[in-house]
Amino acid sequence: MGHSMAKCLSLVLLALLAACAPGKPAAPAGPVKVSIFVGFGTGTDPSQIEVHNQLAKEFNDTHKDIQVEFVTVPYAEARTKYSAMVAGNMAPDLVMPIGVMGIAGNYDGWKDIAPYIKKDNYDLSDYYGPAVDVHKYSDKTVGLPIGVYPSVVYYNSDMFDRAKLPYPPTKIGEAYQGSPWTYDTLIQLAQKLTLDKKKKNATQPGFDAGNVVQYGFDGWDWSPWRIVPGKFGGNALGMSADFKTAQMNTTEWKAGLKFLYDTINTWHVRPKGAGENATSIYGDNDPIGSGKTGMWECFSWIQYAYSGWSANFSWNVAPVPAGPTGKVVAQANADTFAIPVQAPHPDQAWEVMKWMVEPANMVRLTNSYGAIPARKSLAAGWLEGQKKISTKVNWQLFLDSIDYMDKPNNEAWVPNYQKVWDAMENNMTAVTTGKVTDTDKALDTLNTEVQGYLDEYWKAKK
Amino acid sequence: MGTITSQRRKVEARWALAFLGPWIVGFLAFTLGPMVASLFFSFTRYTGTSAPVWIGLDNYITLLTGDPKFWNSMGITFTFAFVAVPLSLVLGFLLAYLLNFKIPGMKVWRTLFYLPSVISGVVVAILWRGLFDEKFGVVNFVLSWLGMVGPDWFTNSQFALVALVLISLWGVGGGMIIYLAGLQGIPTSLYEASELDGAGRWQQLTRVTLPMMSPVIFYNLIIGIISCFQYFTEAWILTKGGPDDATLFYNIYLYKNAFLYGAMGYASALAWVLFFVVLVFTALVFRSSSMWVYYEGEVRKS
User: Fold this and answer.
1) Res. B101 pLDDT band, cuts 50 70 90
2) Is the pTM of this model over 0.90?
3) Considering only Cβ atoms within 10 Å of each terminal Cβ, which end of chain B, N or C, has fewer?
């Protein structure tokens, strides 16, 4: 009996091992199937899935050798499912759309497409240069841009009208009432828009900072903290060029964090809170949409909220102000495709990638994602399309802002990416929630912590 | 005769194996296999997508000697367990004790108190996010009646953990139903006998009810400790470990290492440390049980 049991168990175990063992893929018979993983960013809404499916059908109808299939996973599960697929020898051939952060979080996991670009002599001249650069690193190019999401300052026009204040400038570099459009000017304006319960604004004597009912500026909820030092003339990555020395307690970083602190505690133009999870005064985490914020600097992917805003108040956009050095840095996001290192069919994936960013297909994708197409030739069409949303909004400013995208990007790769990211965001949260008041000391602590992560990364690389 | 018995046993064994087969396959493939794999990965540098590199005990040495977040997350989890487990034990028992009396609408009350424990953690988290909202939440609204200004619970590092402890009490109905079953299993003759001996309500509670309920309390304690050390869903949805790592529970830190930091090997080491911590605590509770858990019919040497 004991032997029989043992034999049976052994057989079961062997069968299991045999089933789990990685086998050689069978020789392809018929067309190659290119699987496209969706879930690292936008692209998972039913309407977007519909667009993907239509594109897949059209591609499959016109290509005999390659067939595409979209694998859509909810955003919250994307990282775990993607890791499981790669670990299980089932890596997809393409990942799309994926932003800079998605790329950076798994930097070593993407293939360099520069050889493909070179081999095909692929024409990049129609693309916005900064949009292409976002996905270019010193050692590789990870993808072709699909769409970009530049930043502008959204403002509630009705609030300006009620305060009898002239609207902000309409073009980058334009002055505001004779003063250069800088963050100092913006703060002065924001203070006039910030009202307490008794309708006193933040510049008036007797203003009650503890009972604010309307804030003048929300910068920069929904944006990573790393954008701020870049605006203040600092190195946005916060480390040396060789990524070995943390530089997050420089004068520029300290000026940036102090500015952030002052917006809450000195000028009282934005509420205390911790990033996008804070400020319940905004209800659905939408500062402008709440009708309680005068200005908000944000990426254009907030486009999904435009209809709600328009239903309740008039709004428009102003350029991102210049920092203390006079430089305008309009931080941006950008979506791309990426080919995993483990992709079973990288050559075919490149062919699919090229097809997807052909002008007609790019328009459909970007319309679906709420992005600005990464091709300059599509700008006029995009402007026409935006007029259906509103004829009053200064849509041209979005296109102009692309030239002022941050470089390196606010989400660009650094060693030990997510740990460094968490450390920076914790630092910002400690300041925005009031836990920390000595911002210089906070950055010294942050710098020490980040140096530890850099050391850990390079030690593991040895 | 002996041969017949032996043959019958063989047939029974085959049938047993046939019925146990699916479970054995599941156990090997989905429990033992992953456990052995994670034990192996815990001795490697493994990102989850690249080939693992053997590094011996490095992961364990790092987490014990060079990772403040490991100790921070362990401390938060212990704090949570030391507060939430006793609170839920006491509250669950009190609810069951009260609902064991014959009161009007008793079945409705029992259902109402039990209902929250069958709702998924995700739904509970979303519900409580609203209730704890700084400006519009019911919790701060009630506090304002008492003249208190409620905090912004989930973005305030001093209150985020408190809020999660309070949310954990939402599920005491699960323990309550087990206590209730235990209370109804206590023979009424014990109460009658104690009454004849002149025992009051308090003495009946402490000398009859609690000793008779001790196996149930013991069970709930073990389950409570294990679930506290595995606490994840609500905290992940509500705070993701923040603000400023104030709610960085052990499992959140483990998850971040595995899926965000690309340190699957390190996360595996964290998982094994957690396994041993839970094992030690469970063993301690088991060892202490001889001092306070009484079983019906058990005869003890004085």
Assistant:
1) confident
2) no
3) C
Q: Do B259 and A80 touch (CB under 8 A)?
A: yes
Q: What's the rounded Cα separation, in Å, for the pair B251 and B226?
A: 12
Distance from CA of A133 to the nearest CA of B (A): 25
What is the share, in percent, of chain A residues with pLDDT greater than 90? 71
Q: Which CATH superfamily is domain B60-292 in?
A: MetI-like (1.10.3720.10)
With residue B34 as reference, give the H or E element that holds it: helix B33-41
Q: Across the interface, do A433 and B156 touch by the CB < 8 Å criterion?
A: yes
Instruction: Report d(CA B55, CA A297) in Å as an integer.
Output: 46
Rounded to whole angstroms, the Cα distance separating B255 from B69 reads: 13
CA–CA min distance A390, chain B (Å): 32
Report the alpha-carbon distance of residue B39 to residue B3 in Å, rounded: 45
Pairing between β-strand A145-156 and β-strand B44-45 as defined by DSSP bridges: unpaired
Tell me the β-bridge partners of A201: A195
SS (H, E, C) B102-127: CCCCHHHHHHHHHHHHHCCHHHHHHH
What is d(CA B10, CA B12) in angstroms, rounded to the nearest whole number?
A: 5
pLDDT band at residue A277 under the 50/70/90 scheme = very low
Phi/psi region, residue A379 (left: phi>0; alpha: psi -120 to 50; beta: rest), is alpha
Count the residues in chain A: 462
Answer yes or no: are the C-beta atoms of B241 and B210 closer than 8 Å. no
pLDDT of residue A283: 54
> In this complex, do A429 and B10 lie within 8 Å of one another by their Cβ atoms?
no
A416 vs A32: CA distance, rounded Å: 36
pLDDT (tens digit per residue) in B49-90: 788 999 999 999 999 998 999 999 999 999 999 999 999 999
Are the C-beta atoms of A451 and A458 separated by less than 8 Å? Answer: no
Which DSSP helix (H) or strand (E) runs through A3? helix A2-20
A67 to chain B, closest Cα gap in Å:
25
By DSSP bridging, strand A94-98 and strand A212-218 are: unpaired
| B162: CB partners within 8 A, 6+ apart | B153
pLDDT at residue A458, as a whole number: 93
User: With contact defined as beta carbons under 8 Å apart, do B218 and B285 qualify?
Assistant: yes
Distances (CA, A) of A396 to A79, A318, A382, A393: 36, 11, 10, 9
Q: Which two tokens stand for residue A27?
A: 């020789």
Q: Alpha-carbon distance B216 to B212, whole Å?
A: 8
Which residue matches tokens 């999660």?
B164
Q: Do B155 and A87 touch (CB under 8 A)?
A: no
B72 part of contact set with chain A, CB < 8 Å = no
Shortest CA distance to B180 belongs to which of B218, B213, B222? B213
Contact yes or no for B116/B124 (Cβ under 8 A): yes
Residue of B nearest to A20 (CA): B29
Biggest distance spanned by C-alpha atoms of chain A? 96
Query: Position A370: which residue type?
Result: G
- DSSP letters spanning A411-456: T---TTHHHHHHHHHHHHHHHHTTS---HHHHHHHHHHHHHHHHHH
Question: CA B215 to CA B221: how far, in whole Å?
Answer: 10
Residue B259 CB neighbour total at 10 angstroms? 22
Closest residue of A to B44, CA-based?
A460
Beta strands A332-338 and A94-98, pairing class = antiparallel
